[in-house]
Amino acid sequence: MSEELLAATLAAIRAGDRERFADIVERYQDDVRRFLAARCRTVAEVEELVQNTFVTAYGSLDAWTGEGAFAAWLLGIARNHARHLARSCARERRTPLDRLDRLLAAPVEEDGADDRLIDRLRRCLQRLPEPHRELVVRRHGEGLGLDELAAALASTKAVLATRLMRLRQTLRACVEGGS
Amino acid sequence: MTTAELEQLAEAYAHDELEPEQRVRLADRLAADPAQLAIFARGVREVVALHGACGGAPARTARQVVHRLASGTESGRRRTGRRIVRRLRVRARGPARWPLLAAGLAGLAALVALVVAAPTADGPVVRIGTVAVDGRGHGPGERLPWGREARSVAGAEVELGDGTRIVLRPGAVARLDAEDHVALAAGDAELRVRPRPERPLRLSLPRCTATVLGTAFTAAAGGASDRIAVASGRVRVDHRDGASLVLAAGESALADARGLQREGAIATTAAAPPDGPLVDLLARGTVRAVGAPEAIDDDDGPGGRSLALPTRGSGIELALPATPAARTLHVTWRDDDEAVLAFRVLVDGVERTVVRGSGTGKAWRATVVDLPPGTRAVRIESLDDARPAQDARPRRPYATTVRLGTIAVRSAADPRP
Q1: Cβ contact (<8 Å) for A27 and B154?
Q2: List of chain A residues whose C-beta atoms are within 8 Å of the C-beta of residue B6
Q3: Average pLDDT by consecutive 10-residue portion of chain B (417 residues)?
Q4: The complex's ipTM?
Q5: Are the Cβ atoms of A165 and B4 closer than 8 angstroms?
Q6: Which residues pair with B236 in a beta bridge?
Q7: Could you tell me which of A179, B253, B386, B396 has the fewest CB atoms within 10 Å of its CB?
Q8: How far apart are CA A71 and CA A75, in angstroms?
């Protein structure tokens, strides 16, 4: 979304045509999702906080002054939600954690390492052959289950699981090698 | 446990696909072996990072967000949510892949359109955004030629000469042939059509044609099916196989290779819950959870608390003051394309209605139950364990909940939903 279109969209929302908020969601959700993926423990958490971020932004739209980048403002909201979730989980009030969750409940470090990991992963993804990239995106981006993928690709779950694991190994080597 | 097994389990954990029993066994193993825990944690982190790197399903997220907006307690937010949900109820279903026959027909139609409807000075005007035609971008205020393929990259709004407005969502491809004919080849569009009985607008999709009888509606041309949802007025939908039906406000239809089907057995135009939020009833102590302590979910979202029905028999019971007047119970719930919803409503212990979700799309729906004079208790309980609709993927209970957004009791004299 260009700055011009963003300004027009926000102006329309502020003038009362708030249904245009859907455009904001579509434009910025990938930025928000990348940001949160570096700060959450599961894909479900990421998706929930993406929604929470936009819901909060919708209610606070009048508070955005127009100074700075709109994406940065959204990411500030996302950061607050991520911190709130971490605090809530630490107190086990929001979502009761089972033992497995607790084993993985180490606080996310805000050192930017996961942000860099995601950036590198994006670059490495682009280097995968198209069919392989599509498989990774459908599984990990769109969250399709192995059953769905197997049906769609006329394959079996076992074959796809193995293929996906190899692709992850390839991506890991790419990320670690920086190549 | 091998590294490969751990990595596959990590992938399943990150996607919430582990069964509860698997989680318990895995926790036992990992707690006893820090090395395996490290491998598992790395795998989880990689999968979540991959999710961030890949990006999600844009239309799906937008739908979920607007549904949550629609469940807000602020009246203005509700109205906005309704409008947005109407726009997005049938959002993108993936990139379109035209069957060869449809592509041939579309090509022929485009050729005809080029001949009979050459670009004129009264072509459609871009109001918002940019529309690309023949590789050239057209911005706000510019006119588009008739009969050419128009592509919206970041979303745009186009106005026809009679005031009809067409919102092309990002990625939508449409051909504006004339004021009475538009073809949507791919993606989503929202149309607000000026009533024009003598020359109704026809919207062609790969598998069906919608004839507008004066209305606002949304359309999505997807990979395997097309969808039409009517916000107001009426639309006639004609499938290529000859089937036809007329949709009224609040109704939608799906056109695919099997034919044309009306969707949603119990659907209303109420995209968002009306007044009487559950949270108020909870605050007054007139509702209690039954069957499962987690039935009332403490959700800190804008919709306040909501009701989850994760297991058979879980639900709520409303205690009502007995009155000599008849009343109506309005139940609004969010249907979900990821989980099948089935619940029943009992009035003073007698089953009065059973609701089964369609499992075909996220949408707010509502039903009304008559409460006879003297009614003291209403119970709403799940008929089934919540389960995925489209597949057999195991999910954790909180991920499969279906929520009741609003339960309102009104006098029979004021039955408005």
Answers
A1: yes
A2: none
A3: 86 82 85 88 88 74 62 41 37 34 46 39 78 83 86 82 81 85 84 73 83 72 75 76 74 78 44 38 58 49 50 74 71 60 79 68 66 80 58 39 54 44
A4: 0.85
A5: yes
A6: B211, B246
A7: A179
A8: 6
Q: What is the mean pLDDT of chain A?
A: 80
SS3 B363: strand
Cα distances (Å, whole numbers) of residue A131 to A127, A143, A153, A175, B98? 11, 17, 11, 20, 20
pLDDT at position B254, please? Answer: 80
Cβ pairs A/B, distance under 8 A: 202
List the single residue in A95, A136, A148 with the smallest CB-CB distance to B54.
Answer: A136
How far is the C-alpha of B40 from the C-alpha of B48, rounded, in Å?
A: 12
To test the contact with chain B by mutation, choose from A41, A58, A75, A170 the residue with the greatest count of B C-beta atoms within 10 A, namely: A58
A145 and B47: CB-CB below 8 Å? no
Which two structure tokens, joined as six digits, stand for A65?
Answer: 């002054």
- Those residues with Cβ within 8 angstroms of residue B43's Cβ, 6 or more apart along the chain or in another chain: A168, B6, B7, B9, B10, B11, B14
Q: What is the pLDDT of residues B118-138, one digit of tens each?
A: 334 478 888 777 888 887 888
- CB neighbours (10 Å) of residue B122? 11
Query: How high is the pLDDT of residue A155?
Result: 84
How many whole angstroms separate alpha carbon B298 and alpha carbon A72? Answer: 30
Task: Indicate yes or no: CB of A47 within 8 angstroms of CB of B56.
Answer: yes
Rounded CA gap, A98 and A77, in Å? 28
Of A23, A35, A100, the CB nearest to B26: A100
CB-closest option in A1, A98, A121 to B53: A121
Q: Would you say B158 and B172 are in contact if contact means Cβ atoms under 8 Å apart?
A: no
| Residue-wise pLDDT tens digits, A71-125 | 888 999 998 888 877 776 665 544 556 677 777 776 555 667 778 888 888 888 8
| Residue A82, number of CB atoms within 10 A of its CB | 22
Locate B301 and state its tokens.
């979202």
pLDDT in tens, B177-229: 888 889 888 888 877 777 666 677 888 888 788 887 766 677 777 667 787 87
Q: Would the CB atoms of A99 and B62 count as touching at under 8 Å?
A: no
Cβ B7–A140 below 8 Å, yes or no?
no
Which of B65, B83, B90 has the highest number of chain A CBs within 10 A, making it the mutation to test binding with A?
Answer: B65
B143 DSSP assignment: B
Interface test mutation site (partner A, options B44, B48, B91, B305, max chain A beta carbons within 10 A):
B48
> Whole-angstrom Cα distance, residue B412 to residue B124?
49
